Amino acid sequence: MSSIFSKIIAGEIPCYKIYEDDKTFAFLDINPEVKGHTLVVPKVEVDKIYDLDDEDYQALMATVKKLAKHMEEVMGQRTLIKVVGTDVPHAHVHLTPLDENWEYGKTLKLAEAEMQEITDKLAL
Ligand code: 5GP
Fold first, then answer.
1. Of 13, 22, 53, 87, which sees the most CB atoms within 10 A?
2. In CATH, 4-122 is 3.30.428.10
3. What phi, psi does 79 have (nearest 5°)?
4. Does residue 80 have a pLDDT over 90?
5. pTM over 0.85
6. Of the residues 87, 94, 95, which should be mutated to test ligand 1's pocket, given the most ligand atoms within 8 Å of the CB?
């Protein structure tokens, strides 16, 4: 069975898309910790990031670097890069702008218009 992220990549589940190339895909997290919270995923479906072969791992990290730099330019804050992976068994990297209002375990409820506005800013 495909993971929820594979369904997003395939367009079977909607998302706020930020970036795509042949090996990676990025979209806004549905439960953002801060405005702009983005997930970067490999198209190949593996559970843990260290299950990726070197080529896919390097492609993922190249996209992380590209999007993190762009996020910093757009948001005016250092970009935080985090790997957790306890919820969705499809490797992914979280990118979040450093935000002084961030609180552990708290997520934001953003309106669709706000999600779209931030997508338009961050999309590459
Ligand atoms: P982790 O596995 O690293 O703990 O977190 C998985 C992340 O995926 C969570 O932050 C969660 O909000 C996000 N997530 C889970 N399901 C969906 C979904 O269907 N769409 C989007 N955009 N994000 C999701």
1. 13
2. yes
3. -95, 130
4. yes
5. yes
6. 87
